[in-house]
Amino acid sequence: MARFQVRNIEGMRQVCIELEDETARAANGALSNLSGNIAFTPRLPRPGDLFRNIFTKESRVRPYYSGTGSIHLQPSLAGFHVFNVLAEDTWILEPGKYWASEGSVELGFCRDPFFASLWAGDGLFAWKTTLSGAGTAAIRAPGPVEEMQVTNGELKVQGRLVLGRTSGLRFRSVRSARFPRNLISGQTRLRMYEGTGKVLVSWTPYWNEYLHNRMTDGDQIEGSLLE
Predict the structure, then answer these.
(1) Residues 99 and 47 sit within 8 Å (Cβ to Cβ)
(2) Are 142 and 205 in contact (CB under 8 A)?
(3) Model confidence, pTM
(4) CA 120, CA 156: separation in Å to the nearest integer?
(5) Whole-angstrom Cα distance, residue 186 to residue 184?
(6) 102-116, 149-163, 182-196, range with the lowest pLDDT
(7) Inter-residue contact 4 to 100 (CB < 8 Å)
């Protein structure tokens, strides 16, 4: 099994992957450096993936890393969360959250119902990455992540606190209160997850990520920091 680790250096966080004759995948442009006998193979997307790319910012090219050695992905002021994908679960990640996974984890795509995406502000066609199979995966996160269990119930949140959910939970956008009281509540709509399943939630951001977003209007650092 590939070993995933998140290390914290100078207030930044970075995912490190150790392979022993194994395979891993990562987001497009995520590589910082690698050492050892590792083959780097960006595979061409399928025609259907190219079509979906018209309607979403999700990259369809997730390079493979195969062999034995160490991989260091790009560091970030934000964070990363490493978790186990179980064979009985299918995870649905929010757009842009996928970062890396073992080769045994299968990646797919799905989209939420049209009106749920529209009212939530996600656009008309919100394609999202899915994870299935069994193995380790890493996602981007603005802060520490907590895994919660929802059992035949509801979870309502203000904003994009939920980073991923299992397929047993249905997503909807709902009013915070009955009309017209929702107009004076200061929180007109909430994101709701109902059913039975697990969610990955980040309640608070890392302080340095929060300050960076406040000072730069949310501009993200992309690519190598030392180019």
Answers:
(1) no
(2) yes
(3) 0.86
(4) 12
(5) 6
(6) 182-196
(7) yes
